[in-house]
Amino acid sequence: MITNSSEQVNNREPLFIIKIGGNVIDDEKTLHSFLKDFSSIKEKKILVHGGGKIATAVGDKLGIQSKYIDGRRITDDETIDLVTMVYGGLVNKKIVAELHSLQCNAIGLSGADANVLPAKKRPVKTIDYGWVGDVNATAINASAWQLFIDNNLVPVVAPLTHDNEGHILNTNADTMAAVLSIALSKLYNVQLIYCFEKNGVLTNVDDEASVISELNVQNYNQLKNDKILFAGILPKIDNAFDAVNNGVHKVVIGNSDNLLQLAKGESGTKIIS
């Protein structure tokens, strides 16, 4: 566990690392509204995006069938080419272009660019996920990120990494955001915001008013044991705790429509170390 004193953290320049999920990307109006709010944040910032359903739609047109096990995409040889084109090309560059229209000086990146996110191919255990990457905070080239950020560029990061052997790897965007936040917390006062379609962590997935305002490990474990939380939110919460327990100043989970409120701590679920 990485610990930073309050004085150390407060003396560092603030940096927002904001992750948007596929449901935001899939809806053009929602994405535009989100990017408008994102561009208005004056502090240094990074946007990490998922892939949404666009890769599946493009794959269907190309005759590339999507394969899943327990909801996780299997990235075979055809699929890694597909997601590289869609995530690193189509989705990433559309977001970058729209941010420029909003006077936000964005630069699109994958993990292979400037070696910013090297990773390792996930080892085969019971399931072979194919070209899927796992990234570690200690492997991240923090100085490259600092070069972009401190020169008033806004990185927009596709969910792709590389293995230092010439292969692109499909990588979970939530995990990328957490690991990147941990690595950059040594240089900045980092606030990580997970944006998706819900108002936060809910005790009732069908009731947007059932937001848990603060969540600590004890409460989280109890809610998991009681099977109160929607299973799909658990990996996101695990990544959030990993970040806040390893030097990240603040982590919030909430609705993309409320980005500016989330940035002020006025909405969503705050993850407590």
Write the layout of secondary structure elements.
Blueprint: H1 6-10, E1 14-20, H2 22-26, H3 28-40, E2 44-49, H4 54-62, E3 68-69, E4 72-73, H5 77-101, E5 106-109, E6 120-121, E7 133-134, H6 142-149, E8 154-157, E9 160-162, E10 168-170, H7 173-184, E11 189-196, E12 214-215, H8 217-225, H9 234-244, E13 250-255, H10 259-263, E14 269-271
Parallel strand pairs: 1-2, 1-11, 2-8, 5-8, 11-13, 12-14
Antiparallel strand pairs: 3-4, 6-7, 9-10, 13-14
Pfam families: AA_kinase
Main location: cytoplasm
Protein name: Acetylglutamate kinase
- CATH topology, which one? Carbamate kinase
Give the termini separation. 11 Å
> What average pLDDT do the residues reach?
93
Tell me the total number of β-strands. 14
Lateral strand order in the biggest sheet:
5-8-2-1-11-13-14-12
Radius of gyration: 18 Å
Q: By CATH's scheme, which homologous superfamily applies? A: Acetylglutamate kinase-like
The proportion of residues forming helix, as a percent range, comes to 25-40%
EC number: 2.7.2.8
Main location: cytoplasm
Pathway: Amino-acid biosynthesis; L-arginine biosynthesis; N(2)-acetyl-L-ornithine from L-glutamate: step 2/4
Catalytic activity: N-acetyl-L-glutamate + ATP = N-acetyl-L-glutamyl 5-phosphate + ADP
